[in-house]
Design brief:
This protein has 371 residues and is an alpha/beta fold. It has two domains: 2-122, no CATH class; 124-369, no CATH class. Helices cover 27% and strands 29% of the residues. The chain has nine helices and 16 strands. Strands 1, 2, 3, 4, 5, 6, 9, 14, 15 and 16 form a ten-stranded mixed beta sheet that branches. 32% of the residues are buried.
């Protein structure tokens, strides 16, 4: 949640809601109904909390009014977050949608606006994997198996395949980077406790998106999932540790088909640049080691990396994907590049490594991963 301060009398609780300017979002208060653009909110420093959901403002106001009658004011934002999260993550049929609309007094409900009855969780930071055609099987295996190499808690509990979606990928700062939009996605979820019931006896669990795998629409998804889930697990040194994902009781949620018309912007999959989103130094180290195998000569490897890999802070890459329950808006500022070797490693915003790189410490980060 983000906080703002103001002399306004209402202690606002905002959600993101579609504006009259189609394609744009604005913030709406679930208590007083105030609607304000993101830029105006920044300028006026309005008081309140902003919840990470996109939904119809009337729906959020009606849900809030039900919560306000049953809990003390200090917990309203938390209970509203839990309610919208559950509405977004638990699918129900059309009949239940109608009864929910009546119960919440959602008067402008229609069969054509069925998605208004579930909020969307905004995701700006995630373990992002985008698969170019040439490394499809390898990327699938790593996306499914990364994090199972030791005894720490498993990285995800379930996954969902999303068909016929549009992940719009925009690249600024270097015309040599060519990335086509993706039309197939797998969202990996981890269960987490986000609150407690009104009597504080029962924990409220929700599925949080923790990893996003993107692929082209002609991908043989079932074959690759079969290969990835039956692949022998290995440790961080590449040694087999036994076991497979198929034995880990990972739940495959029902597939989703968004039936969106594919959006293409002129980049063909055959021209695709291999782009690897990075959010931490350990992942950067594994990527660098993958591009420049150390073998027995670490000194030569380090010299090659320092000579050819540079940080270009002008590169900005954005991934935008809207499903029925999540709104993914993952932005990258700056990238480590070596076009002679086909290396593009954009740094994902919102992580410590991003702050270091954008503040002129990219060389220090590179030296750190080479140790």
């Amino acid at each position: 949640m983000s906080s703002f301060s103001s002399t306004c009398g209402c202690n606002h609780i905002y959600v993101f809601t579609p504006s009259n300017n189609e394609g744009f979002l604005e913030c709406g208060c679930v208590k007083c109904g105030l609607r304000i653009s993101n830029s105006e909110m920044t300028e006026q420093q309005m008081k309140g909390e902003v919840l990470p959901f996109v939904c119809d403002l009337e729906l959020a106001k009606n849900v809030y009014s039900n919560i306000a009658d049953k809990s003390f004011e200090g917990s309203h934002a938390r209970y509203l977050t839990n309610a919208l999260d559950r509405m977004a993550s638990i699918p129900i049929n059309d009949k239940r949608q109608v009864s929910r609309a009546i119960r919440l007094n959602f008067l402008n409900y229609s069969n054509n606006s069925i998605n208004k009855l579930g909020g969307k969780r905004i995701v700006t930071k995630i373990d992002l994997r985008a698969c170019p055609n040439q490394d499809m099987e390898k990327n699938f295996i790593k996306a499914f198996t990364d994090g199972f190499e030791n005894d720490r808690p498993r990285p995800y509990d379930s996954f969902c395949v999303v068909h016929n979606c549009n992940c719009v990928i925009t690249v600024d700062g270097d015309d040599r980077i060519k990335v086509p939009n993706k039309h197939l996605a797998i969202v990996f979820y981890k269960k987490e406790i986000t609150g407690w019931s009104f009597d504080y006896r029962t924990p409220v669990e929700n599925d949080r998106p923790v990893r996003l795998l993107l692929a082209n629409d002609d991908t043989n998804i079932e074959k690759l999932i079969e290969v990835a889930t039956h692949h022998e697990l290995v440790d961080c040194y590449g040694d087999t540790i036994g076991g497979r994902i198929s034995k880990k009781r990972i739940i495959r949620k029902p597939d989703k088909d968004l039936k969106q018309i594919p959006l293409e912007f002129g980049v063909k999959p055959i021209e695709e640049t291999k782009v690897c989103s990075c959010s931490n130094t350990s992942f950067l180290a594994s990527l660098i080691n993958g591009y420049y195998p150390a073998n027995a000569n670490y000194i030569k490897r380090d010299e090659l990396v320092k000579a050819y890999v540079t940080f270009n802070k002008a590169i900005n890459i954005t991934y935008q994907l809207y499903t029925d329950s999540e709104s993914f808006e993952v932005r990258h500022s700056g990238a480590f590049v070596d076009f002679s070797s086909g290396i593009v490693i954009p740094i994902q915003q919102g992580f410590p490594i991003s702050e270091d790189c954008t503040n002129g410490l990219a060389d220090d980060v590179l030296k750190l991963v080479l140790r």
